[in-house]
Specification:
heterodimer, A: alpha/beta, Nucleotidyltransferase, domain 5, 3 domains, five-stranded mixed β-sheet, 13 strands, globular, B: 363 residues, alpha/beta, Rossmann fold, Transcription Regulator spoIIAA, four-stranded parallel β-sheet, 15 helices
């Protein structure tokens, strides 16, 4: 039986899933990228091989901000953007879904779907206020783990009102509220409310959030955010069982159409891959060119705007 | 006197050779690069828009290369742009540059425009002034025509970069055509060159109308080469604003070419009844036109802090809702990350492709 691999290399976490041809998740891994996407990807592949043995791979898809890098490392058949990938997996799970709210490590998206087709979307552009990394940073500052954040928020009696437009202001506002004597629960709940308000004001402005709404991405782990969303919009937010890996599932679903895969094989886990970068300097654009090396051999190069380094591969 | 004019798309290709022939010592700024933008950002007010910063960078680089006179359009202008020349002059003087600055005070009036041309080129007769301007306009129209051919062939090309090479070659050919007769001879040749590109005949690419503030639409450096990127995603670009139209609309030199601004104004009626500055009325009118003509979607691009286009973007999101028509607005400034732009473009193209096959969806 053939299985399909979906890889989502995000800003904060790397997600790898294995699905069968019906879209059932056979295996999944969710780990921190920690600034080393190749290492994270390789260790996920090694873990997959250990758990599942040498499964036959029928197709590979990559998505996330590191999709191109992942493509060069494992050899992908489908390289898709996160928006399409998230939409596909949500439609697969809930065919009549109309709204997808996705909040990840550094970006957040709102996708509107009608009749199983994406009709509109928006994505945060320059500001990461109200995404996972912001929450994590604040949780660390408050001395609680990111996993506990939700239960604290749910225990609040009267959430503090925190300015959520900008992370810097939110932080100083939180400190102010702490000094005023608000308890931790109320501050955490206020933080969740601020994030939700920020999301609704920026991404959902002028867009209709209609049911069924699916809430996915890493931040969906936080029941406090879900509760804030439901309170603010009056709609029910469904958190799917595989909420953090939905992007990877989506792109694996796409990879099912592959006829002949470009997958490099399980040896990718053991390859001695390293990346290096240099500035071209042949014109004032001085593009940062990135290359992946397998031992001494250059596998791929990219990042140049004129294309002369990319063309030189192998 | 070595004269420089900031870049705007292919405009410098249109006038440099013509003015040189009439004895103007032209020093076009070097093509915009990251260094140009860095220089502009460093010396410009933070909330000035991207065109201001790139223009300023152009000027600094040209002055460093030996130019000592700058020509900048200005006057009561279409938006804040009208004051840009004045502010840029001030900034450059404070940086210690010595140069002569001419701003065309009333660029919408042909006689003033011709006056400026006569002033810088030193031609005596009015007739020569007019004929120089007309030749520049025709050369610009030829460059725009070549760009439109590029938009058609790029998504269909079989070998990557073929079309880009042909476009470069065409621009060179038009640059060398320094008289009307040569220009008319060169156009059929350019068409032949494009027709010789091996293309995928079976492909019916998704079409996207590109609209917005004219500088970011026509200057690839300001928009991360968005037209090329779309072409590589197999999307046919229909550009809604052209520099030759912009010139022609103001001066009506080509009587058989429709006045696009007036046309857009007519189309926009009901949504925007008066010009709100910049290209706002073109954006609104042409969005409605593209929708009527069956173009799959509209990509609306503008520089950050651009007021007229912000007005237009609100109106076209209303059109999008009223007529169930996909519109994507994007703002550009020096802070924008390319990854984010590519993700949104790809998702938008996916959306349009799926809409085409609505009902026979595979998923």
């Amino acid at each position: 039986m053939k299985a399909f691999l979906g890889i989502d290399v995000g800003s904060v976490t790397t997600k790898v899933v294995l699905i069968d041809q019906f879209g059932t998740v056979l295996w999944n891994s969710y780990r921190k990228t920690q600034g080393q996407p190749i290492r994270a990807l390789q260790s996920a592949c090694a873990a997959l091989r250990q758990d599942m043995g040498d499964v036959e791979i029928g197709g590979v898809g990559t998505t996330g901000s590191g999709r191109k890098l992942a493509d060069h490392v494992v050899g992908a058949d489908t390289v898709k953007n996160e928006i399409t990938a998230h939409a596909l997996s949500a439609i697969h799970l809930v065919p009549n879904v109309r709204t997808i709210v996705e909040i990840g490590g550094q970006d957040s998206k709102l996708i509107l779907i009608r009749n199983r087709v994406v009709t509109d979307f928006s994505m945060n552009t320059v500001c990461a206020a109200g995404t996972g990394s912001f929450l994590e940073h604040q949780a660390t500052r408050l001395g609680i783990s990111i996993g506990e954040l939700g239960s604290y928020a749910l225990a609040a009696s009267s959430p503090a009102r925190i300015a959520g437009r900008c992370t810097v202001f939110a932080e100083s506002d939180m400190i102010h509220k702490q000094q005023m004597g608000h308890n931790l629960e109320d501050i955490v709940a206020g933080l969740c409310d601020a994030l939700v308000r920020n999301y609704l004001n920026n991404l959902a402005r002028g867009k209709e959030i209609s049911e069924p709404v699916i809430f996915q991405g890493g931040v969906a782990a936080n029941p406090g955010i879900k509760a804030s969303f439901e309170r603010e919009t009056g709609k029910e937010f469904i958190v799917p069982p595989h909420y953090p890996i939905m992007g990877a599932v989506g792109v694996a679903l796409l990879a099912r159409d592959t006829r002949c895969t470009r997958f490099r094989g399980w040896s990718v886990a053991e390859q001695q891959l390293s990346t290096s970068s240099f500035y071209c300097g042949d014109c004032p654009n001085s593009c940062g060119v990135i290359e992946i090396n397998d031992c001494d051999r250059v596998i791929a190069r990219w990042g140049d705007s004129c294309g002369k380094w990319g063309a030189q591969r192998e | 006197m070595r004269l420089t004019v900031p870049h705007m798309g292919l405009l410098s290709t249109a006038y440099t050779r013509v003015l040189r022939q009439h004895g103007v010592d032209m020093q076009p700024p070097p093509p915009a690069t990251v260094r140009t933008l860095d220089l502009g950002v460093k010396h410009a007010p933070e909330f000035a828009c991207l065109p201001f910063k790139i223009n300023l960078g152009n000027m600094i680089e040209a002055l460093d290369n030996g130019a000592d006179a700058i020509l900048m359009p200005g006057g009561y202008g279409p938006c804040r742009f009208g004051y840009y020349g004045v502010i840029q002059e001030q900034i450059l003087r404070e940086l210690g540059y010595r140069f002569r600055m001419s701003t065309t005070d009333n660029p919408d009036r042909l006689s003033d425009m011709i006056g400026t041309i006569r002033e810088i080129s030193g031609v005596r007769s009015k007739f020569d002034g007019y004929s120089i301007f007309f030749l520049i306009l025709m050369r610009m129209a030829a460059l725009d025509r070549a760009t439109a051919l590029y938009h058609y062939y790029k998504p269909r090309e079989l070998n990557r970069e073929d079309t880009d090479r042909v476009l470069q070659q065409s621009v060179r050919m038009i640059d060398l055509a320094d008289s009307y007769s040569r220009l008319f001879k060169v156009m059929p040749e350019i068409k032949r060159l494009f027709r010789a590109i091996p293309i995928d005949e079976t492909l019916t690419p998704v079409t996207i109308g590109v609209l917005g503030e004219i500088f970011v639409v026509i200057e690839p450096f300001a928009n991360f080469g968005i037209e090329k990127k779309l072409g590589e995603m197999r999307v046919e670009v229909r550009r809604g604003v052209w520099l030759s139209d912009w010139l022609n609309d103001r001066f009506r030199f080509r009587p058989f070419r429709r006045n696009q601004t007036a046309y857009a104004r007519k189309l926009a009626r009901g949504y925007l009844n008066y010009p709100a500055g910049g290209e706002s009325i073109e954006t609104v009118g042409k969005t409605l036109l593209f929708q009527k003509k069956g173009v799959d979607g509209v990509l609306h691009i503008m520089p950050f802090t651009c007021m007229p286009e912000l007005v237009a973007s609100t109106i076209i999101s209303r059109i999008s809702k009223d007529r169930d028509y996909p519109v994507l607005s994007m703002t550009f400034d020096e802070q924008v990350s390319e990854a984010n732009i590519i993700t949104r473009l790809e998702a938008f193209v996916d959306l349009l492709e799926r809409r085409r096959h609505e009902g026979i969806s595979r998923y």
